[in-house]
Structure formats: C-alpha cells, structure tokens
Amino acid sequence: MNRKYRKTVIAGNWKMNKTPSETKEFMTQLKAIMPKGRWCDVALCVPAVCIPAAVRAMRETRVGIGAENCNPNPSGAYTGEIATNMLTDAGCKYVIIGHSERRAMGETDADVNAKVLAALDAGLIPIMCCGESLEQRQNGVTAEWITMQIKLGLKDVPEDKIRKVIIAYEPIWAIGTGLTATPEQAEEVCEMIRSVVRKLYSSKNARAISILYGGSMNEKNAFELLAQPDIDGGLIGGASLVPEKFVKIIEAANQPTV
Ligand code: 13P
Q1: 221 in contact with ligand 1, CB cutoff 6 A
Q2: For 19, 75, 84, 88, which has the most beta carbons within 10 A of its beta carbon?
Q3: CATH (domain of 174)
C-alpha cells in the first residue's frame, strides 16, 4: 500500500452467496463491529437481488455497495441482464468486471472493455479483474497474459478517467483454493500492472491507481500482502462472507505504509 498517493480499498465479492434476508443480517453484524478509522475504502459487491437490502443497511456508513457484473448496453432486449444506470439508481458505487469466473462463462477481453467503458460513463467505479491460470504461470507467460488483459480491458479509457478504475489481480490458481500467492509473487505482478498503466498513461496516473490482490486473501495473510508497496487492497471472496474475518482484513489495512 501507499496511502500517500492512492486509496487503499478492501472489497468483498460475495459471488453467488447469501439471500436478501441474510444480507440484512450480515450488514447488521458488520455495522456493530466496523472499525471507526477511515484508513481505507470498503466495498461489498453482492448478488443483484441483495443490492437493495445492502444499500439500505449501509446508507449512513463508510461501506460502498457494488454489483458483480453489468451489461454494457444502455437498455434493450437482453433478458436477464442489468444495465449500469440500473445499478447506479439502485445505489451502487462499484461494479466488478471481468472476474475469472465470468470469463470462464465466455466473457472476452472485448466484453470486459465495453463494460469498463459503460461503468465509467455511468459514474460507477469498475473493479477490473485480471489473472493467469496455473498452466500459464508454469509456462512463464504470466506477464504477457496480464499485460494483454490490461491493455485490452482499458482500451479507449480516457486519460481523465483512468484514476477511477480499480484493477484487481487474481491468479486463477489462488481463487477459492486456499493457495495464496506469496506476497512476493503478488507484488511482482501488481508492480508489473502498474508499469503497464505507466506506459499506457503516465507516471502520475500509474502512481494514483489502486491495484488489489485477490485469491484466498484472509484475516491471517492480509497484513503481509497489504504490506507490499504495490498491493493497495484486496478483493476478497470467502472471507468477506463472515463479518469478523472481513473486519480483520480491514484492520490489516491500518498499518504503516512506505
Ligand atoms: P477467495 O477469496 O474465496 O479465494 O475468492 C477470491 C475472489 O475470487 C474474489 O473475487
């Protein structure tokens, strides 16, 4: 982290977990133990049907609510899809885009890019995910793969909007497996992502954007991961479903930074 130049962001990704009733219960518990300091931004990205309950519960708090996906089109015949203006109207501040679980369902880099542009237009903060498979890591193409995902995902994002984008590095082999990237492995890729942004935009913009790590981040390993200079927060799956664990990760963001 480097709180001098950029925001630290602790974001939960609930995936397909919790009902609206369970959301209300979770938020009540979270509010009771939420740390008072403001050393990081806190986001919870929840299933679409849980958004109203989450927004209602967290209205007077520092927790911003987000969605887990969006459709890039403004409206129309897209059965089952949700447009960005529906998300903002429902009170969302964030949207996760290009999670590997959605890419596995067929989402392409071009889809990711269209969604990032639509989210920015609507005033949402996109949390754009990238990450390599185990096979890609073993074949030594992690840097090339991530560079491609970043370049294609950020295509046509204007200079004055790049700072609104949050990038999440999530190695696929570390998601939900209990296998966390070591702080050094995660830092190496996050640092590389920042250098790609530097080349595409500028040093100032690269220094200002928040890059998160995701993949089995939990209350035990968060402190060490967040101590890395280019890891500006976490995108947390399993551990964001338990208020006590999520709060411990938020507390880990309260450590001295470089
Ligand atoms: P886990 O924290 O459950 O490994 O999930 C990470 C993730 O995919 C967050 O988007």
Answers
A1: no
A2: 84
A3: 3.20.20.70
What are the pLDDT digits (tens) for 210-223?
999 999 999 999 99
CA of 215 to the centre of ligand 1 (A): 5
Counted domains in the chain: 1
Question: Is there a contact between 174 and 180 (Cβ–Cβ < 8 Å)?
Answer: yes
Out of 9, 14, 15, mutate this one to test ligand 1's pocket (max ligand atoms within 8 Å of CB): namely 15
Is 4 exposed, middle or buried, given 0-12, 13-18 or 19+ CB atoms closer than 10 A?
A: exposed
Q: Is residue 128 part of a domain?
A: yes
pTM of the model: 0.97
The total of other beta-carbon atoms located within 10 Å of residue 189's CB is: 23
- Residue 221, amino acid: N
Question: Is the pLDDT reported for residue 69 higher than 90?
Answer: yes
12 lines ligand 1 (CB under 6 A): no
Q: Is the CB of 238 under 6 A from ligand 1?
A: yes
pLDDT tens for 159-213 read 999 999 999 999 999 988 888 889 999 999 999 999 999 999 999 999 999 999 9
68, 99, 187, 219: which one is catalytic?
Answer: 99
